[in-house]
Design a protein that fits this description.
Blueprint lengths: L4 H25 L24 E8 L9 E8 L7 H22 L5 E6 L2 E6 L7
Antiparallel strand pairs: 1-2, 2-4, 3-4
Length: about 130
């Protein structure tokens, strides 16, 4: 399967935004807990998702059973064996969501996208069309 250039561009913009949020929370919280023993230190790989304390992802969902429909579910994973209190976990995630809200119009200026809560998840929803392909 060959991806359309507009889809490749969208994916690249999404990855750049995810990396920016990852770097933001690494700067702010990256030294709070020890890394998982097999996890590379920050900046030891070419992919911020693969090193450091955090792994930031956005997984597409078609939205079946959702009030908001399709979108990208935001995930922030902490790569440590240490116990993380729920309030700390929530603070970090809330900070990441606010950073996503700030960066969404920067990385996707020509799209009507927003972040909304969908049950227990936060999700990027809106215009994912590729126009005329």
């Amino acid at each position: 399967m060959i991806d359309h250039p507009k889809m490749i561009q969208f994916d690249n913009q999404m990855k750049a935004m995810l990396d920016a949020v990852d770097n933001y929370i690494e700067d702010k919280y990256g030294d709070l807990y020890p890394l998982h023993p097999v996890r590379p230190k920050r900046n030891e790989t070419a992919n911020p998702q693969a090193d450091g304390l955090f792994g930031v992802r956005a997984d597409f969902t078609p939205g079946y059973g959702s009030d908001l429909g399709r979108g990208y579910i935001l995930k922030v994973e902490m790569k440590t064996l240490a116990h993380i209190p729920e309030d700390v976990r929530q603070t970090i995630f809330s900070d990441a969501v606010e950073k996503f809200r700030e960066l969404l119009p920067v990385y996707f200026p020509d799209r009507k996208l927003e972040i909304k809560q969908d049950k227990e998840f936060f999700k990027i929803v809106g215009d994912f069309s590729l126009g005329i392909v």
